TrEMBL record:
Name of the protein in its database record: Fimbrial protein TcfD
Highest taxon in the source lineage: Bacteria
Stored InterPro entries: CblD, CfaE_adhesin
Pfam families associated with the record: CblD
Gene, per the UniProt record: tcfD
Lineage: Bacteria, Pseudomonadati, Pseudomonadota, Gammaproteobacteria, Enterobacterales
Organism: Salmonella oranienberg
Protein backbone atom coordinates (compact mmCIF):
# COMPACT_ATOMS: atom_id res chain seq x y z
CA UNK A 1 0.00 0.00 0.00
CA UNK A 2 1.43 3.34 -1.02
CA UNK A 3 -0.10 6.51 0.35
CA UNK A 4 0.64 9.91 -1.10
CA UNK A 5 -0.82 13.21 -0.07
CA UNK A 6 -0.57 16.45 -2.03
CA UNK A 7 -1.83 19.93 -1.25
CA UNK A 8 -3.12 22.39 -3.84
CA UNK A 9 -1.84 25.91 -4.26
CA UNK A 10 -3.74 28.61 -2.36
CA UNK A 11 -2.18 31.58 -4.22
CA UNK A 12 -5.30 32.79 -6.03
CA UNK A 13 -7.54 32.23 -3.01
CA UNK A 14 -5.42 34.27 -0.64
CA UNK A 15 -4.57 36.96 -3.19
CA UNK A 16 -8.17 38.20 -3.13
CA UNK A 17 -8.21 38.22 0.68
CA UNK A 18 -4.94 40.13 0.92
CA UNK A 19 -6.13 42.78 -1.56
CA UNK A 20 -9.25 43.27 0.57
CA UNK A 21 -7.14 43.61 3.72
CA UNK A 22 -4.77 46.13 2.16
CA UNK A 23 -7.69 48.31 1.23
CA UNK A 24 -9.87 48.12 4.37
CA UNK A 25 -7.81 46.69 7.24
CA UNK A 26 -4.92 48.17 9.23
CA UNK A 27 -1.69 46.95 7.54
CA UNK A 28 -0.12 45.56 10.74
CA UNK A 29 -2.60 42.69 10.68
CA UNK A 30 -1.44 41.49 7.30
CA UNK A 31 1.52 39.60 8.75
CA UNK A 32 -0.63 37.64 11.20
CA UNK A 33 -3.09 36.63 8.52
CA UNK A 34 -0.34 35.57 6.14
CA UNK A 35 1.14 33.36 8.86
CA UNK A 36 -2.23 31.70 9.36
CA UNK A 37 -2.50 31.09 5.64
CA UNK A 38 0.88 29.38 5.62
CA UNK A 39 -0.20 27.11 8.48
CA UNK A 40 -3.03 25.64 6.38
CA UNK A 41 -0.52 24.12 3.96
CA UNK A 42 1.45 21.52 5.95
CA UNK A 43 4.16 19.54 4.26
CA UNK A 44 3.01 15.93 4.45
CA UNK A 45 5.57 13.22 3.74
CA UNK A 46 4.79 10.05 1.80
CA UNK A 47 3.53 7.25 4.02
CA UNK A 48 5.39 3.96 4.07
CA UNK A 49 4.38 1.25 1.63
CA UNK A 50 2.43 -1.53 3.34
CA UNK A 51 0.85 -4.68 1.89
CA UNK A 52 -1.94 -6.37 3.82
CA UNK A 53 -1.33 -10.12 4.10
CA UNK A 54 -3.76 -12.73 5.42
CA UNK A 55 -5.01 -16.28 4.89
CA UNK A 56 -8.66 -16.93 4.04
CA UNK A 57 -8.84 -19.42 6.89
CA UNK A 58 -7.43 -16.98 9.46
CA UNK A 59 -9.01 -13.61 8.64
CA UNK A 60 -7.94 -10.85 11.08
CA UNK A 61 -10.73 -9.29 13.15
CA UNK A 62 -10.10 -5.81 11.75
CA UNK A 63 -7.21 -4.61 9.60
CA UNK A 64 -5.85 -1.05 9.71
CA UNK A 65 -5.11 0.27 6.23
CA UNK A 66 -3.31 3.39 7.42
CA UNK A 67 -3.46 6.14 10.00
CA UNK A 68 -2.59 9.70 8.92
CA UNK A 69 -1.80 12.38 11.50
CA UNK A 70 -1.92 16.07 10.56
CA UNK A 71 -2.46 19.50 12.06
CA UNK A 72 -4.22 22.34 10.26
CA UNK A 73 -4.34 25.53 12.31
CA UNK A 74 -7.71 27.31 12.47
CA UNK A 75 -9.18 25.30 9.61
CA UNK A 76 -12.33 23.24 10.11
CA UNK A 77 -12.66 20.50 7.53
CA UNK A 78 -12.93 16.82 6.76
CA UNK A 79 -12.36 14.04 4.24
CA UNK A 80 -14.78 13.06 1.46
CA UNK A 81 -14.97 10.66 -1.47
CA UNK A 82 -15.02 12.25 -4.91
CA UNK A 83 -18.13 10.33 -5.95
CA UNK A 84 -21.02 8.30 -4.60
CA UNK A 85 -20.85 5.94 -7.60
CA UNK A 86 -17.25 5.49 -8.73
CA UNK A 87 -16.10 2.49 -6.71
CA UNK A 88 -12.80 2.41 -8.61
CA UNK A 89 -11.65 5.44 -6.57
CA UNK A 90 -13.90 4.91 -3.56
CA UNK A 91 -17.60 5.79 -3.30
CA UNK A 92 -19.37 7.27 -0.24
CA UNK A 93 -23.04 7.99 0.32
CA UNK A 94 -22.11 11.58 1.25
CA UNK A 95 -19.56 13.49 -0.81
CA UNK A 96 -19.81 16.75 1.15
CA UNK A 97 -18.98 17.86 4.67
CA UNK A 98 -21.45 17.79 7.53
CA UNK A 99 -21.10 20.04 10.55
CA UNK A 100 -21.86 17.71 13.45
CA UNK A 101 -21.31 14.00 13.85
CA UNK A 102 -22.44 10.81 15.54
CA UNK A 103 -20.24 9.49 18.31
CA UNK A 104 -18.38 6.21 17.66
CA UNK A 105 -19.43 6.29 14.01
CA UNK A 106 -17.63 5.48 10.77
CA UNK A 107 -17.90 6.61 7.16
CA UNK A 108 -18.46 3.66 4.81
CA UNK A 109 -16.36 3.66 1.63
CA UNK A 110 -17.16 1.22 -1.19
CA UNK A 111 -13.92 0.31 -2.95
CA UNK A 112 -13.45 -2.11 -5.85
CA UNK A 113 -10.54 -4.56 -5.75
CA UNK A 114 -9.19 -6.46 -8.77
CA UNK A 115 -7.21 -9.70 -8.74
CA UNK A 116 -4.08 -9.23 -10.84
CA UNK A 117 -4.05 -12.57 -12.69
CA UNK A 118 -7.70 -13.58 -13.13
CA UNK A 119 -8.93 -9.93 -13.26
CA UNK A 120 -11.85 -10.92 -11.03
CA UNK A 121 -13.37 -7.94 -9.19
CA UNK A 122 -15.15 -7.44 -5.88
CA UNK A 123 -16.31 -4.41 -3.89
CA UNK A 124 -15.37 -4.18 -0.21
CA UNK A 125 -16.51 -1.64 2.39
CA UNK A 126 -13.78 0.28 4.22
CA UNK A 127 -14.40 2.29 7.39
CA UNK A 128 -13.09 5.85 7.66
CA UNK A 129 -13.00 7.72 10.96
CA UNK A 130 -11.25 10.63 12.67
CA UNK A 131 -10.37 11.71 16.20
CA UNK A 132 -10.86 15.40 16.89
CA UNK A 133 -10.26 18.09 19.50
CA UNK A 134 -13.73 17.87 21.08
CA UNK A 135 -14.18 14.13 21.56
CA UNK A 136 -11.84 11.32 22.54
CA UNK A 137 -13.64 8.67 20.46
CA UNK A 138 -14.01 8.39 16.69
CA UNK A 139 -16.46 10.16 14.37
CA UNK A 140 -17.29 10.27 10.65
CA UNK A 141 -14.36 11.40 8.53
CA UNK A 142 -16.51 14.08 6.82
CA UNK A 143 -17.64 15.81 10.04
CA UNK A 144 -16.14 19.31 10.21
CA UNK A 145 -16.92 20.46 13.78
CA UNK A 146 -13.81 20.59 16.02
CA UNK A 147 -11.78 18.99 13.27
CA UNK A 148 -8.40 20.62 13.58
CA UNK A 149 -5.39 18.71 14.80
CA UNK A 150 -6.74 15.18 14.31
CA UNK A 151 -5.98 11.81 12.74
CA UNK A 152 -7.70 9.96 9.89
CA UNK A 153 -7.88 6.17 10.08
CA UNK A 154 -8.98 3.66 7.44
CA UNK A 155 -9.82 0.07 8.34
CA UNK A 156 -11.25 -3.06 6.70
CA UNK A 157 -13.53 -5.24 8.87
CA UNK A 158 -13.04 -9.01 8.90
CA UNK A 159 -16.43 -9.67 7.29
CA UNK A 160 -15.28 -7.63 4.28
CA UNK A 161 -11.90 -9.40 4.00
CA UNK A 162 -13.78 -12.71 4.13
CA UNK A 163 -15.64 -11.73 0.94
CA UNK A 164 -12.49 -12.13 -1.17
CA UNK A 165 -13.43 -15.30 -3.10
CA UNK A 166 -10.00 -16.74 -3.91
CA UNK A 167 -6.35 -16.42 -3.04
CA UNK A 168 -4.27 -14.00 -5.09
CA UNK A 169 -3.10 -10.40 -5.25
CA UNK A 170 -6.02 -7.99 -5.00
CA UNK A 171 -5.38 -4.29 -5.65
CA UNK A 172 -7.39 -1.07 -5.35
CA UNK A 173 -6.79 2.69 -5.37
CA UNK A 174 -8.59 4.98 -2.94
CA UNK A 175 -8.78 8.74 -3.55
CA UNK A 176 -10.01 11.11 -0.82
CA UNK A 177 -10.22 14.91 -0.87
CA UNK A 178 -9.76 17.17 2.14
CA UNK A 179 -12.32 20.00 2.15
CA UNK A 180 -12.48 23.12 4.30
CA UNK A 181 -15.85 23.91 5.87
CA UNK A 182 -17.65 26.36 3.60
CA UNK A 183 -15.42 25.67 0.59
CA UNK A 184 -15.85 23.50 -2.49
CA UNK A 185 -12.26 23.20 -3.71
CA UNK A 186 -10.15 20.53 -1.99
CA UNK A 187 -7.18 21.73 0.05
CA UNK A 188 -5.53 18.35 -0.37
CA UNK A 189 -5.89 14.96 -2.00
CA UNK A 190 -4.87 11.58 -0.59
CA UNK A 191 -4.22 8.71 -3.01
CA UNK A 192 -3.80 5.28 -1.46
CA UNK A 193 -2.78 2.13 -3.35
CA UNK A 194 -3.95 -0.91 -1.39
CA UNK A 195 -2.73 -4.45 -2.02
CA UNK A 196 -4.29 -7.50 -0.36
CA UNK A 197 -2.04 -10.55 -0.60
CA UNK A 198 -4.47 -13.39 0.08
CA UNK A 199 -3.49 -17.02 0.60
CA UNK A 200 -5.70 -20.08 1.10
CA UNK A 201 -3.87 -22.73 3.10
CA UNK A 202 -6.94 -24.97 3.12
CA UNK A 203 -7.41 -24.96 -0.66
CA UNK A 204 -3.70 -25.55 -1.28
CA UNK A 205 -3.21 -28.40 1.19
CA UNK A 206 -6.57 -29.99 2.01
CA UNK A 207 -7.24 -33.36 0.43
CA UNK A 208 -9.92 -35.99 -0.11
CA UNK A 209 -7.93 -39.21 -0.03
CA UNK A 210 -8.87 -42.73 -1.16
CA UNK A 211 -6.27 -45.03 0.46
CA UNK A 212 -7.01 -48.01 -1.80
CA UNK A 213 -6.31 -46.04 -4.97
CA UNK A 214 -3.43 -43.66 -4.13
CA UNK A 215 -3.27 -41.00 -6.85
CA UNK A 216 -5.56 -42.89 -9.26
CA UNK A 217 -9.22 -42.10 -9.77
CA UNK A 218 -11.26 -44.63 -7.76
CA UNK A 219 -13.17 -47.25 -9.76
CA UNK A 220 -15.93 -48.92 -7.78
CA UNK A 221 -18.06 -51.93 -8.70
CA UNK A 222 -21.58 -51.81 -7.26
CA UNK A 223 -21.28 -55.58 -6.65
CA UNK A 224 -24.68 -56.40 -8.16
CA UNK A 225 -25.77 -59.97 -7.58
CA UNK A 226 -28.95 -62.04 -7.96
CA UNK A 227 -31.30 -62.30 -5.04
CA UNK A 228 -33.51 -64.73 -6.94
CA UNK A 229 -34.53 -65.48 -10.50
CA UNK A 230 -36.02 -62.03 -11.08
CA UNK A 231 -34.20 -59.57 -8.78
CA UNK A 232 -30.73 -58.12 -8.24
CA UNK A 233 -29.23 -55.82 -5.59
CA UNK A 234 -25.79 -54.71 -4.47
CA UNK A 235 -23.63 -53.07 -1.85
CA UNK A 236 -20.15 -51.53 -2.18
CA UNK A 237 -17.83 -49.73 0.23
CA UNK A 238 -15.33 -47.01 -0.66
CA UNK A 239 -12.67 -46.08 1.90
CA UNK A 240 -12.32 -42.28 2.06
CA UNK A 241 -10.37 -39.99 4.39
CA UNK A 242 -10.54 -36.17 4.80
CA UNK A 243 -7.52 -33.96 5.54
CA UNK A 244 -8.27 -30.32 6.39
CA UNK A 245 -4.89 -28.98 5.30
CA UNK A 246 -3.71 -28.49 8.87
CA UNK A 247 -6.04 -25.57 9.64
CA UNK A 248 -7.67 -27.37 12.62
CA UNK A 249 -11.20 -27.21 11.25
CA UNK A 250 -14.08 -27.64 13.67
CA UNK A 251 -16.46 -28.52 10.84
CA UNK A 252 -16.34 -29.39 7.15
CA UNK A 253 -19.03 -28.86 4.53
CA UNK A 254 -19.50 -31.78 2.16
CA UNK A 255 -21.36 -32.19 -1.12
CA UNK A 256 -21.66 -35.27 -3.35
CA UNK A 257 -22.98 -35.06 -6.91
CA UNK A 258 -23.65 -37.72 -9.54
CA UNK A 259 -24.06 -38.17 -13.29
CA UNK A 260 -27.81 -38.58 -13.40
CA UNK A 261 -30.32 -38.57 -16.21
CA UNK A 262 -33.25 -37.93 -13.90
CA UNK A 263 -34.44 -38.10 -10.32
CA UNK A 264 -32.94 -36.80 -7.10
CA UNK A 265 -30.90 -39.87 -6.13
CA UNK A 266 -27.84 -41.42 -7.77
CA UNK A 267 -27.76 -43.47 -10.97
CA UNK A 268 -25.53 -45.51 -13.24
CA UNK A 269 -26.47 -45.34 -16.92
CA UNK A 270 -26.26 -47.74 -19.87
CA UNK A 271 -24.51 -45.76 -22.59
CA UNK A 272 -26.46 -47.14 -25.58
CA UNK A 273 -29.92 -46.85 -24.05
CA UNK A 274 -32.02 -44.85 -21.64
CA UNK A 275 -31.83 -47.54 -18.97
CA UNK A 276 -30.59 -46.54 -15.51
CA UNK A 277 -30.04 -48.28 -12.18
CA UNK A 278 -30.62 -46.29 -9.01
CA UNK A 279 -28.38 -46.52 -5.96
CA UNK A 280 -28.08 -44.66 -2.64
CA UNK A 281 -25.02 -43.11 -0.98
CA UNK A 282 -24.35 -42.86 2.74
CA UNK A 283 -21.32 -41.61 4.66
CA UNK A 284 -20.09 -43.17 7.89
CA UNK A 285 -18.84 -40.48 10.28
CA UNK A 286 -18.25 -40.84 14.00
CA UNK A 287 -19.99 -44.20 14.14
CA UNK A 288 -23.21 -43.06 12.48
CA UNK A 289 -24.48 -43.39 8.92
CA UNK A 290 -25.39 -40.11 7.18
CA UNK A 291 -27.76 -40.45 4.18
CA UNK A 292 -26.53 -38.27 1.30
CA UNK A 293 -28.85 -36.26 -0.94
CA UNK A 294 -27.37 -35.61 -4.35
CA UNK A 295 -26.07 -32.03 -4.75
CA UNK A 296 -27.08 -30.91 -1.24
CA UNK A 297 -24.41 -29.68 1.20
CA UNK A 298 -24.23 -31.20 4.66
CA UNK A 299 -21.98 -30.52 7.64
CA UNK A 300 -19.55 -32.74 9.51
CA UNK A 301 -19.28 -31.16 12.97
CA UNK A 302 -16.63 -31.54 15.70
CA UNK A 303 -14.05 -32.63 13.15
CA UNK A 304 -11.27 -31.41 15.46
CA UNK A 305 -12.39 -34.00 18.04
CA UNK A 306 -13.08 -36.87 15.63
CA UNK A 307 -11.01 -40.04 15.49
CA UNK A 308 -8.19 -39.81 12.95
CA UNK A 309 -5.65 -42.09 11.34
CA UNK A 310 -2.23 -41.39 9.82
CA UNK A 311 -1.94 -41.41 6.02
CA UNK A 312 0.86 -40.51 3.66
CA UNK A 313 -0.68 -38.24 1.04
CA UNK A 314 0.72 -38.25 -2.50
CA UNK A 315 3.65 -35.85 -2.85
CA UNK A 316 4.25 -35.51 0.91
CA UNK A 317 7.14 -36.94 2.94
CA UNK A 318 5.44 -37.04 6.32
CA UNK A 319 2.20 -38.68 7.35
CA UNK A 320 -0.75 -36.47 8.33
CA UNK A 321 -3.85 -37.19 10.39
CA UNK A 322 -7.07 -37.51 8.41
CA UNK A 323 -10.66 -38.23 9.41
CA UNK A 324 -12.03 -41.54 8.02
CA UNK A 325 -15.45 -41.16 6.36
CA UNK A 326 -16.06 -44.31 4.27
CA UNK A 327 -18.86 -44.25 1.71
CA UNK A 328 -21.43 -46.99 1.24
CA UNK A 329 -23.16 -47.41 -2.14
CA UNK A 330 -26.37 -49.41 -1.83
CA UNK A 331 -28.45 -50.69 -4.74
CA UNK A 332 -31.95 -51.63 -3.68
CA UNK A 333 -33.52 -54.75 -5.27
CA UNK A 334 -34.76 -54.17 -8.82
CA UNK A 335 -36.45 -56.31 -11.47
CA UNK A 336 -33.91 -57.75 -13.90
CA UNK A 337 -36.47 -58.02 -16.70
CA UNK A 338 -36.95 -54.22 -16.63
CA UNK A 339 -33.28 -53.54 -17.48
CA UNK A 340 -31.25 -54.33 -20.56
CA UNK A 341 -28.17 -56.43 -20.02
CA UNK A 342 -24.77 -54.76 -20.41
CA UNK A 343 -22.43 -52.34 -18.63
CA UNK A 344 -23.80 -49.42 -16.63
CA UNK A 345 -21.52 -46.52 -15.65
CA UNK A 346 -21.67 -43.29 -13.68
CA UNK A 347 -19.56 -40.84 -11.72
CA UNK A 348 -19.55 -39.46 -8.20
CA UNK A 349 -18.03 -36.06 -7.44
CA UNK A 350 -17.10 -35.38 -3.81
CA UNK A 351 -16.51 -31.77 -2.72
CA UNK A 352 -15.11 -30.64 0.64
CA UNK A 353 -15.47 -27.03 1.79
CA UNK A 354 -14.10 -25.27 4.85
CA UNK A 355 -16.64 -24.86 7.63
CA UNK A 356 -15.40 -23.32 10.88
CA UNK A 357 -11.96 -23.56 12.40
CA UNK A 358 -10.58 -23.65 15.90
CA UNK A 359 -9.46 -20.32 17.38
Amino acid sequence: MKNKMKWTSMTAHWSAIINFIRKYVYPARIIAILLMAGATLPQVADAITVDLNYDKNNVPVITPVWSQEWSVANVLGGWVCRSNRNENEGACEETHLVWWYSFEAYSKIRLRFREQISHAEITLILLGSVRNACYTGVVHMNAAACQWGRSLKLRIPSEELAKIPTSGTWKATLVLDYLQWGGDDPLGTSTTDITLNVTDHFAENAAIYFPQFGTATPRVDLNLHRLNASQMSGRANLDMCLYDGGVKARSLQMKIEGSNKSGTGFQVIKSDSADTIDYAVSMNYGGRSIPVTRGVEFSLDNVDKAATRPVLLPGQRQAVRCVPVPLTLTTQPFNIREKRSGEYQGTLTVTMLMGTQTP
